[in-house]
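Write out the 3D structure for:
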Amino acid sequence: MEIADSALDLIGNTPLVRLPHIGNGLAADVVLKLEFTNPGGSSKDRPAVTMIDAAEEAGLLKPGGTIIEPTSGNTGVGLAIVAAQRGYKCIFVMTDKVSPEKVDLLRAYGAEVVVCPVAVPPDDPDSYYSTAERLVAETPGAYRPNQYDNQHNPRAHYETTGPEIWRQTDGKITHFVAGAGTGGTISGVGKFLKEQNPDIQIIAADPEGSVYSGGSGRPYLVEGVGEDFWPTTYHPDLVDRTIAVPDIDSFLMARKVTQAEGIHIGGSGGTAVKAALEVAQEGKEGDLVVVLIPDSGRGYLSKVFNDEYLANFGFVTAEEGPVVADIIAGKRNNVANLIYVFPEMTARKAIATMRENGVSQLPVAKGDMPLAAAEVMGAVSELQLMELAFQEPDALDRTVEEVMDPKLPTIGIGQPLKRVVEMMETCPALLVLDGGRPAHVVSRTDVLSFLSPGEDIDQI
């Protein structure tokens, strides 16, 4: 009988499939390796087993122990499956960028989940890396696989994923495209394929802003790919090329593959396919581009596949009527970049900035333009600071972070005017997101100016 002894025996041997619609007309053949057919739904099942096997053999993880790991979700699921089979407890640390479905999924496996802010550097005490280290120190019998530094991570793909691709393509693969998160997949597969044929091109598909493609690592929206530091599990000498892909292209490609091919892929899969199509367009007849799809889109239904989410982040535009972009185009004091203040500035400096630019409220954010939405911390306004100064004369010499109000509500640049008016019933201004990033502030005055062109609102 063809019956596996446990879920762990079902890991690997994932299929390849062509893109008959999206890949039509390309000289190169583009095929997807569907890692979401693993029992945990992602490519991370492979290193999860390999890392725990190695830890047990080395005596680092003992019966009844606790596995603790920072994860965007998929590694956690793989580890949770191993833990369920072998009697371990699990604590997973995630950032607040991760979709709620992934948090709920890990809890469904019986794991404890700790959520940390995404807009902090790796060495910040509140980062998910630092939090995981603290939990390991506080938990008796704890073991952290440390997928970012554990060489058994790329080894899993060297021993399984790479050989599978070589066998499934009969050695005809010419290009391998994958996202780089920990770097384990692209490094392990890349090493094996290069040993078989050094001419095979290894291409990393990377979110704009990630360090792999030259960014600072500041927050981007696509999950589970890219990084804000250089893990030792990423072997750059094996990567021939890195292609940066904006969030919007990743999200729209994931939706396109899902709708055109009936293959439900996640945002990072969209990143990889977008990069692979660029490679294929430059390719020639006989080229075979294999794209690793790390997981399905089911963990991203509230984000990538949610129209309201995309609209709120300024990724799509309403089909009818005026939209936020039209209001911005008509602003009297329209400027090229968003005006904001840093949290360490004084309130007095914030007032001066408002006067210089003719605005009555400013976002408070850390970081340089282009900002990420997660880097916005709060807001200050003339009315708020006036009341504060009246009550406390020395308050204006305090830092903005000490006196700021909560963040302005956000709205996408393509959202309709009706939505703007509804939101402004309870707030005087909105922070406008364009392509997922803060780009402008729209006030009630701006809306009135748009609705009454030619009128001097100050004189009304």
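The chain has a mean pLDDT of 93.
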